[in-house]
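job 3f2a | input accepted
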Amino acid sequence: MTRSIRTLLAAFAAAFAIAGATTAFAGTVHLSDPNCDSFTLSPVVAGSQTLTCIISTPPTCTVAGPGAGSVGTPVTLTAQCSPAATSWAWTGGNCAVVTTQTCQASSAGAGVVGYTVLGTNLNGPGGQSPALNVTWSSGPPPFPTGCVASISTVPTVLTNAGGTATVSVSGCSPTSVTYNWSRNGAAGWSTSATPPTDTLGPGGTAGYTNSYQVSVCNGSSCVSVPTVNPLTAFVPGTGGGGGIDLSACAAAGYVGHGVDLVYPTSTNSPRVLTTPTVGSFGGSDMIVARFVAAASEGNGSNLVASEYSIYPAAFRLATLSTTPCVVATSATPSGNILASKISQAPGLNMALAGGFGVIKLTPGATYYVNYVNRDSYGSTASSCPSSNCAMYIDFNN
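job 3f2a | predicted structure (397 res):
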């Protein structure tokens, strides 16, 4: 068997010759290919020549793959041959009928199965490879791991006009998993890792939230992604009407309390005292303050949660998001989280025009500031020393 490698010796001559001189200097080129037994160069004249790889031996193969598997879950076995093989013949279990370089080995029962492969090239078949013994274990297959679900919307911040939402899941192991997406709690919406784009209609008066979650299965072993809180896309109502959906607060382990704020366009909005407006604000509570960005404004706005002296002081974590009940886990904005701050009086500067250090808002879009009593990102411990650490919420222009 031969294969050709075209070379232009003129290029080598240019590398080893002295421009304008009548004498050319010889050079040495070393070539190595584990699939070649030798090389020939023809024709033996100056100019373009062909370097030919000579393969005069049949391939020697080994089987690469895991040494253990679960009953009913395929594992990938690969023939690795030198020199390269052009056809393959497998033995062992369901691989005995396979003639490709890889075999998806599986077993219906527990035990040890030996798998071998014989490779062939134009010089004939090589010897049978050493066996790779795979120990098959009974019981349920392992749960999928590494799955990450994501969502994006167009526009990025949805308005009352609606838009589209695209969800996907990636990174799952093993790669043979199956998918079953739920949309608004109804399973069977899609069985693809990337479902079709979901069209979001207008929000009407009250607005609405679409939720998405996928069940990823490796045989009978399934996991939900995301594990707890579904992906969500919220289309706001006109003026932010309708009750605030606080179901995600409960799913995250908090008691949610909703309050609507008026976005200030030229004057300050009425001050809100969280008690008695929304009830207690302790370690297990979350205050979800909703507002709709105005179509225009005189100045940028500043939303500040300030202490109320009758109640104990506490550090608050404020998270500005396009969805309710979301709590930032770091100071870096990501996904639906636009900004966050930890302080005894956390303030957020925002404006329709944006600016340096100012959060840019979309006119007519609905936003949420989610408050919890925490003194650090990722903390599960309350920073409130009592059952109620009430505060004022001031929205100033």
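job 3f2a | Confidence is low (pLDDT under 50) at residues 1-22.
job 3f2a | closed
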